[in-house]
Amino acid sequence: MSALEFLDLGWNSIQSLVNFTDSTKSILPNLKNLKLTGNQISLVQKDLLCNKSVETLNLHNNGIGVIPPFSCCETLRVLHVGMNMLTSFNGTYFCPELTYLELQNNLLEMFPDLSRNSKLNFIYLHGNQIASVDASSIPALLTGLKLKNNNFTTFPDLADKKSQIETLDLSENHLGDPPENILRGYTSLKHLYLNNIGMTKLFRLSHAGDTLETVEIKYNSIHILDESMMPGMVALKVWDLRNNLLTSVPFDLLSTYTVLEKMDVRGNQISDLGHSEDDTSTYEVCFFVIYCNCI
Questions:
Q1: Are 45 and 71 in contact (CB under 8 A)?
Q2: Mind listing the pLDDT tens digit for each residue in 245-292?
Q3: Burial class (CB in 10 A: 0-12, 13-18, 19+), 119
């Protein structure tokens, strides 16, 4: 009986897993991490995980078009199936321990129904063709949702699941300017990424101000930092505004963000530091924060 726990078969010429499935049941009973990245696999058997010990399965970058519901995946915690040809996905219906799922760069048009994966807390779905989210498909414990580079034209309505989301990435969708109160209900949000979505103005970030630690809204067309949208962001540590159209920065307001560690405003049109000549102390503190992190 082999004690092997990690097996990396990546970047070979494997086309079929039929023989491998049969052998692992008896030969590799302790296998926990199976990596099959970069092969030529197009078909995955539903009994692939029936040795009942695999915790991490990596099928990234193959030619897989369909993954049937795994018939036995009681121990599976991490699944990578990015960069394949999936048009739909229901492979984890019977994987009760799954916590992390990567489905990026496939051909998905619908948000998969993951409601049965009650322990799933992070999903990568960027680079698909998804245009909407049915909140009932979202797992009960989900905290991280990456939907970068899909087909969204409006901010998805996560309904009662908003309050549990800690990381939200909607970058590179055609969202334009989100409604002013779009973050209302996101009471746990820590990391927000809205890069390159066609924004021209800020919305009310203060609705998530008690928890927001990272805000990235780079590669947009924002001209002005509207101070009325920004108060109360007491947890903000990283504020990335690169490559917008800003002409000034409200240092007086930024000095109230007591835990702010990094602000990046490279690639804007700033000529006015927004500083009163009579208040040198405010200028020195704020300039130090920006200079030291943006050089």
A1: no
A2: 999 887 777 777 889 999 999 999 998 775 544 444 333 333 333 433
A3: middle
d(CA 128, CA 111): 10
Distance CA 173, CA 155 (A): 9
CB atoms within 10 A of CB 1: 8
What tokens does 210 get? Answer: 């008690």
Letter string b/e over residues 171-200, b meaning 16 or more CB atoms within 10 A of that residue's CB: bbbebebbeeebbebbeebbbbbbbbbebe
pLDDT digits (tens, 9 = 90+) for 183-235: 999 999 999 999 999 999 999 888 887 899 999 999 999 999 888 888 778 89
pLDDT digits (tens, 9 = 90+) for 27-72: 888 899 999 999 999 999 888 887 778 999 999 999 999 998 988 8
Query: pTM for the complete prediction?
Result: 0.90
Give the integer Cα–Cα distance in Å for 279 and 131: 49
